[in-house]
TrEMBL record:
GO cellular component: nucleus
SMART domains tied to this protein: EXOIII
Database matches in Pfam families: RNase_T
Primary role: Exoribonuclease involved in ribosome biosynthesis. Involved in the processing of ITS1, the internal transcribed spacer localized between the 18S and 5.8S rRNAs.
InterPro entries per record: REX4_DEDDh_dom (IPR037431), REXO1/3/4-like (IPR047021), Ribonucl_H (IPR013520), RNaseH-like_sf (IPR012337), RNaseH_sf (IPR036397)
Listed name of the protein: RNA exonuclease 4
UniProt similarity note: Belongs to the REXO4 family.
Record bears the keyword rRNA processing: yes
A GO biological-process term: rRNA processing
Gene3D superfamilies the UniProt entry points to: Ribonuclease H-like superfamily/Ribonuclease H
Amino acid sequence: MYSLSSDNNVYVPSCNWRRLQKSLHILGEIRKKTKKRIIKTDLNKFNSIPRNNNEIKCPFSISKQVFCKQINESKKNTELSKKDSNYQQKTRKGKYIALDCEMVQVGPSNKKDRVLARISIVNYYGNVIFDTFVKPKERVIDYKTHINGITQADLKNAPSFEEVQSKVADLLKNRILVGHSLKNDLDVLLLSHPKKDIRDTSKFKTFKAYSKGKSPALKKLAKEILNMTIQNDVHSSIEDARAAMLLYRRYKHEMDHA
């Protein structure tokens, strides 16, 4: 199909091959084969070219040290996020709350009328979600400071009973109420709560075994069951509420099905 030309020592197509090209509509000259030209780049010259200081650098071109630092920071952020989540869970109100009240004596000296002077409410984890003194309407005969630590100064600028009662009523809604001798606390608050949602540690049968079948003192239960000392000097409504919640948590399944 090709013949050698003696003039320029190149191969030229034969007549038959030219006819075949025309029949297939292939026109134009046949390209001579040429060697590929390899361009060598001088890296030194390339690096010497001045660059624009404002050019955009690739964000992925970072050193190993920077990369490791970013990974460590990412891990720390994840750990902090988990801690924040746990903190939020433990500080929110939740389904279970425990309360305890401290009272002062009012009215004639020959009667033992008591009114609310302080109330503390903690959540399932013992974190305080509400704690306030309450200003009595009646004249206080005995602050019972030796028992509850409350003084006249504590109640002077305290919120009114109605204000506190309203806030407590809102907190009690649709929640399990835990406490010790809760009837006394609810009576002084002038509030009620569904019986099915009350967990009273003074009435739990298992706890009565520590006081020969009678209603046990919270201080005794805390010492015997929790190995915890409370009411050492004066009563603290926060401390008592926490102790009641810990007792409930220890026997939660039994108390829920009692």
